[in-house]
Design brief:
Blueprint (H helix, E strand, L loop, with lengths): L3 H11 L6 H13 L13 H12 L4 H9 L2 H4 L4 H8 L1 H10 L10 H18 L2 H15 L6 H21 L3 H15 L1 H35 L4 E7 L2 H11 L10 E7 L4 H14 L1 E2 L5 E2 L12 E7 L3 E9 H9 L1 H8 L3 H4 L3 H16 L2 H16 L2 E4 L5 E4 L5 H8 L1 H5 L1 E6 L2 E3 L11 E5 L9 H4 L3 H33 L9 H7 L8 H9 L5 H8 L1 H13 L4 H4 L3 E3 L7 E3 L11 E5 L5 E5 L15 E2 L1 E3 L7 E10 L4 H11 L3 E10 L4 E10 L2 H12 L4 E6 L2
Parallel strand pairs: 2-6, 13-15
Antiparallel strand pairs: 1-2, 3-5, 4-5, 5-6, 7-8, 9-10, 9-11, 12-17, 14-15, 14-16, 18-20, 18-21, 19-20
Helix pairs in contact: 1-3, 2-4, 3-4, 3-9, 4-7, 6-7, 7-8, 7-9, 8-18, 8-19, 9-10, 9-11, 10-11, 10-19, 11-12, 15-16, 18-19, 23-25, 26-27
The protein binds manganese (II) ion.
The site of manganese (II) ion has 4 residues, from loops.
């Protein structure tokens, strides 16, 4: 069991000039506050903060961090107010503890909401001071180590959260050691059976390896000594979870996991060149697997990890890996951000040039910006996944842009500037024009072409990877809708006022607001937006402005038939409500036709048939296409313009109209014309149908009449 003396000893070992008084004081205070509390294990509560503080002392964090670690549960789990912490331990410690304390005012919220809100709070605190995250990870580590004392269903939930969020966070800030242990412990509780059977196999293999491990170890030691390399040699077996992941990902057996056994040669001399020298020695000793040789020194991993890896073959085919790195690299590999902290010795400002930290806080800020609570955790998980796999691409001017794995030119465009994103129409990758949803690869040179008139497409949401791009596109559409509704509502109301000769001064916002309970209306623009978005009817508004109109209007509506004004109720734009839609005159789509929306400059979204000729014109901007779908409403009715070419025979018109009669179709207009020379007649029927199906049916029937040469729907 960890005692406070162990912590102080570690602290003074790493900070010979440090003063442990405050640590001692924090220990006494925390012990007092947690005095009557017990952990689920039955041990006194203080054991937990002591363990957390020890982990923090081990990775050489400063005095304030150790103090905060000792106090991290005091505010949350005892009656102590945060002010008391500030009074006794200073502002810096209080800020750290506050960042680690869950929000107390959330009891009424759903569990997932509460979780998201708490997590958000943690991340904000972390963005301000990364030590919060490091302490939180140490806290989670101890909770995972003692998870066996929790109830089974809780074990699973906590383990899943650890694997989804905390292990990736640890990875993102390069804390490899904690990450490995968190993953392995999570795996044990999430998939106990798989963990057990794989552990057994791993143990078996370890036993088999044992005699060779010592032989290899001794050889390494001798050779290093002989070559004057001052180093530490560690041996390590891969964690069960890492083995499991590798086997799953690559679809390989345990025997094919070549880094199952690894040795680490950690050079006391902080000279990277000596690492290469060691590799040379190793390759002279054993056969090495050429394609598994990795140089992470000249090309560090995104989280700062540096090392040389090589896989060697011992005797009859025993594969093992050797990792060669300097002491400094080793600390970064194990402690990541915490190691940077130590080297910089400064506070936040000094840390900001750590690339991984920048990346992480940028992601967090983006996540905070626009995502709702419920989406937040998911976005966060995605964000974390992205961080570990991101790619670097180049702008034409040679600037590098870091993007998540599988990002597209649209993500790139939004990363450059929001306006570049909104107006992007075309992309070139390595000099070639590519579709906007092309997956970018590390090192690509990306060039974006923009058009001042271009606007984003809803389709982009299906393939963009960055939250930034997603949020900007969504925001654009929200804004677009609002503006569109505003100008449409304004136009509609003004037109109606003119028509009924009502002076604008009769529009009494207060009165309207009182009568319309469904929405607050405080200014004229609110009213426009509601009218334009069909959230309230113009008729209702007019009725309020001039009550005598209400009765008259009602009668008129009853008589009304299906016109374009109803059309918009029949079509839904995927993902958007209340947007102005019109039926394109060029192709007059009807229910059942394959349709597509086109965002016009002034008339909202116009609905076309997908095969409409007008859409093939060059002035059409593909970025303006929008997915739309039909909505089935009670009374469907569409006007269709039908052309029928027939032989010029007697009685043909009667035969044609008979079909319409039998199908009970409402004929609006019939025009006929004969070509005496050709002995043909052409008729134009304007008819009301309820769907594409009915129309197709009608056409089949018409075509079956003797003398009918062809029937087509006018485009
Ligand atoms: Mn805790």
């Amino acid at each position: 069991m960890i005692r406070i003396d162990d912590i102080i000893e570690k602290f003074t070992e790493h900070h010979p000039d440090g003063d442990p008084t405050l640590i001692q004081k924090a220990y006494v205070f925390a012990s007092m506050m947690h005095e009557y509390q017990k952990r689920k294990s039955g041990l006194p509560y203080i054991v937990h903060p002591l363990n957390v503080a020890y982990t923090i002392a081990e990775i050489r964090l400063d005095e304030e961090s150790i103090v905060a670690a000792l106090l991290h549960d005091v505010v949350e789990d005892t009656e102590t107010p945060i002010d008391k912490i500030e009074e006794l331990f200073g502002k810096e410690v209080a800020l750290l503890v506050d960042g680690l304390t869950k929000l107390s005012a959330l009891e009424n919220l759903e569990k997932s909401e509460r979780q998201a809100a708490n997590f958000k709070k943690l991340l904000i605190a972390m963005a301000e001071d990364p030590r919060v995250l490091i302490i939180k990870l140490a806290d989670r580590l101890d909770n995972m180590r003692t998870l066996e004392f929790m109830k089974e269903h809780k074990q699973k939930t906590i383990a899943e959260e650890t694997l989804d969020i905390y292990a990736p966070l640890a990875h993102a800030i390069g804390m490899g050691k904690i990450k490995g242990e968190l993953e392995n412990l999570s795996f044990k509780y999430i998939a106990p059976d798989e963990y057990k059977s794989l552990s057994e196999k791993v143990e078996e293999r370890k036993t088999k390896y044992e005699p060779y491990v010592d032989e290899i170890y001794n050889t390494l030691k001798e050779e290093m000594l002989k070559n004057g390399i001052n180093c530490i040699i560690q041996k390590r077996f891969k964690h069960v979870y890492s083995i499991y992941k590798k086997m799953k990902q690559r679809n390989i057996t345990l025997d094919e996991v070549y880094d199952f056994l690894a040795f680490r040669i950690i050079l006391k001399n902080n000279d990277p060149n000596e690492c290469y020298k060691v590799i040379g020695i190793l390759h002279g000793l054993w056969v090495y697997v050429a394609h598994r040789w990795r140089d992470f020194i000249s090309q560090p991993k995104k989280n700062g990890y540096q090392s040389l890896h090589t896989t060697l073959i011992y005797g009859e085919g025993l594969h093992f890996e050797v990792q060669v790195r300097t002491e400094e690299m080793h600390r970064i590999a194990e402690e990541g951000l915490a190691a940077h902290w130590q080297y910089k010795q400064g506070k936040l400002s000094a840390l900001e040039d750590s690339r991984i930290y920048q990346l992480l806080s940028k992601t967090i800020v983006e996540l905070q910006e626009n995502s709702s609570s419920s989406r937040f955790i998911n976005d966060m998980k995605m964000g974390l996944k992205d961080i570990s796999n991101d790619i670097m691409v180049l702008t034409p001017r040679g600037k590098t842009i870091t993007l998540p794995h599988q990002s597209t030119p649209v993500d790139f465009a939004y990363a450059i500037h929001t306006e570049v994103g909104h107006k992007c129409v075309r992309a070139k990758v390595d000099g070639k024009i590519v579709p906007l949803d092309t997956e970018l690869k590390d090192g690509n040179l990306v060039e974006i072409h923009t058009l001042p008139s271009a606007t984003p497409s809803r389709d982009w949401l299906k393939f963009v990877k960055t939250n930034r791009a997603k949020n900007r596109i969504r925001a654009w559409f929200r804004n677009f809708e609002k503006e569109r509704n505003l100008s449409r509502g304004k136009e509609l109301l003004e037109k109606a006022l003119r028509k009924h000769k009502i002076p604008f001064s009769d529009v009494d916002i207060e009165k309207i607001n009182k009568e319309i309970k469904s929405h607050p209306i405080t200014k004229i623009d609110d009213l426009y937006i509601l009218i334009g978005g069909n959230a309230i009817s113009l008729r209702k508004v007019l009725g309020i402005i001039k009550p005598s109109l209400a009765a008259k209007k009602k009668a008129a509506i009853k008589r009304g038939n299906s016109k374009d004004s109803d059309f918009e109720k029949k079509v839904r734009i995927k993902g958007i409500d209340h947007i102005y839609v019109t039926r394109a005159r060029c192709c007059n789509p009807i229910y059942g036709d394959d349709i597509i929306g086109y965002l016009t400059k002034v008339k909202g979204v116009s609905i076309h048939r997908v095969d409409c000729e007008n859409l093939k014109q060059t002035r059409i901007d593909p970025a303006r296409f929008i997915d739309v779908e039909w909505v089935e409403t009670e009374k469907m009715s569409f006007t269709v313009d039908l052309n029928i070419l027939t032989e010029d025979v007697k009685g043909i018109l009667t035969k044609l109209t008979d079909v319409f009669d039998k199908m009970n179709l409402d004929l609006r207009k019939v025009i006929g014309e004969t070509h005496k020379a050709k002995q043909q007649a052409i008729f134009r029927f304007i008819v009301q149908v309820d769907s594409r199906q009915q129309l197709d049916n009608l056409i089949v029937k018409l075509k079956s009449i003797k003398g009918v040469l062809s029937v087509w729907r006018k485009k």
